[in-house]
UniProtKB/TrEMBL annotation:
Compartmental location: Secreted
GO cellular component, one term: extracellular region
Family as reported in the entry's similarity comment: Belongs to the plant self-incompatibility (S1) protein family.
Protein name: S-protein homolog
Top-level taxon of origin: Eukaryota
Major place of residence: secreted
UniProt keywords, alphabetically: Secreted, Self-incompatibility, Signal
One Pfam assignment: Self-incomp_S1
The keyword Secreted belongs to this UniProt entry's keyword annotation: yes
GO biological process: rejection of self pollen
PANTHER family: PLANT SELF-INCOMPATIBILITY PROTEIN S1 FAMILY-RELATED, PTHR31232
Length: 95
């Protein structure tokens, strides 16, 4: 099971367990100051990664996909996919 935990400075979306093929999504109103930032932490077995899922200056990334080698983003308009972050292995003490 993949654990996903996303948050911003003001909102913690909580931890969500996802099975293969499931998705997690949310919506929000960006800050009128232009400072909205969401980051997500992912965990599966002994692997972890964190990445910025949304920031006000990036109006193009709409989807994030988790693969065996890390997380990928997909742009809204160009429909291009890019590699965002690799997994890192952790020892049991780092859980």
């Amino acid at each position: 099971m993949l654990m996903v935990h996303c948050r911003s400075k003001d909102d913690d979306l909580g931890a969500h367990g996802l099975a293969v093929g499931e998705s997690f999504e949310w919506s929000f109103d960006p800050s009128w100051l232009g400072e909205t930032l969401f980051w997500c932490s992912l965990a599966v077995e002994d692997k972890r990664l964190s990445f910025v899922a949304y920031y006000e200056g990036d109006m193009y990334t709409e989807y994030w996909y988790v693969h065996d080698d890390g997380v990928y983003g997909q742009t809204r308009h160009a429909n291009a996919t890019f590699y965002e972050a690799p997994w890192r292995r952790v020892s049991p003490r780092q859980y």
